[in-house]
Amino acid sequence: MHTGIIPVELIAMNNLTIEHTSSATGRKLQRRGEESRRRILDATLVLIAKRGLHGITHRAIAAEAGVPLSLTTYFFNGMNDLIEQTFDHFVLVAAKDNVEMLNQLNLYLSDLPPEILLRSGDARVAVHLEVTRRLANFIRMQAELHSVGLAVELNFLSLYRLDPPVRAKVVAYRAMLVSGIAQLARMVGSDQPEVDASLVLSVIHRLQFECMNLPPPWPESLLEAEIGRMLALVFRLH
């Protein structure tokens, strides 16, 4: 006979079912939110590459990302916050190629005997040519295969009118690259590694800009010649 009293066990089972359903729904919504946020960040990278930092709008970002306009302000506290998080996103997904290049050069130089790196001679000249070749090929690859990331990087590095928190992150990012290049400069005997590293990085960025504005193939006279001349000063080749 039905007494109208629901067993405690059944109540507990129902609660578990409700909690499980609620948790699963929450995780699904969270995944959708993360996906939408990622699409907005990716779209912002694309638009910065196309239009520059000062040419982007919430409406254009929403259209590029294929999301409602309201989401561009739901996930981000204004355009400055969106740009700052976009730079963080760029460092996470695109800038790792720069770090990998530095690591590869470090491994290459670390495997060479000190007498080759620090004493003049044909072997040291060969090392200079190999480093020149690797850097030139890296610039070619970035311009050909990763033009969006490269354009975004150059936009952030070249603009002075940035929100202070973004500017601080851009300065720290460049300092990280300079530090990595300075370590390589020390390995080949530079007597001013930080200065040399800053100059090398500036030459690389200018050549990247040239490659972004010229159709391939990019000649050795543009890349190998200028990188080689810059590195000859670092290697102190006369």
Task: Please characterize this protein's 3D structure.
- The protein has 238 residues and is mainly alpha-helical.
- The chain folds into two domains: 8-89, Tetracycline Repressor, domain 2, CATH 1.10.357; 94-235, Tetracycline Repressor, domain 2, CATH 1.10.357.10.
- The protein is 77% helix and 0% strand.
- Helix 4 packs parallel to helix 9.
- The longest helix has 44 residues, at 8-51.
- The chain is elongated, with a radius of gyration of 26 Å.
Keywords:
DNA-binding; Tetracycline Repressor, domain 2; Homeodomain-like_sf; 0% strand; 77% helix; TetR family transcriptional regulator; 2 domains; HTH_TetR; mainly alpha; 238 residues
- Count of all domains: 2
Element order: H for helix, E for strand: HHHHHHHHHHH
Q: What percent of the residues sit in helical stretches (DSSP H or I)?
A: over 70%
Bulk shape: elongated
CATH-derived architecture of the largest domain:
Orthogonal Bundle
Topology record:
Layout: H1 8-51, H2 58-65, H3 71-74, H4 79-93, H5 96-110, H6 114-118, H7 122-145, H8 147-158, H9 164-187, H10 193-212, H11 224-235
Helix pairs in contact: 1-2, 1-4, 1-8, 4-9, 5-9, 7-10, 7-11, 8-10, 9-10, 10-11
Quick rundown:
Helices cover 77% and strands 0% of the residues. It is mostly helical. Helix 1 (8-51) crosses helix 8 (147-158) and helix 7 packs across helix 10.
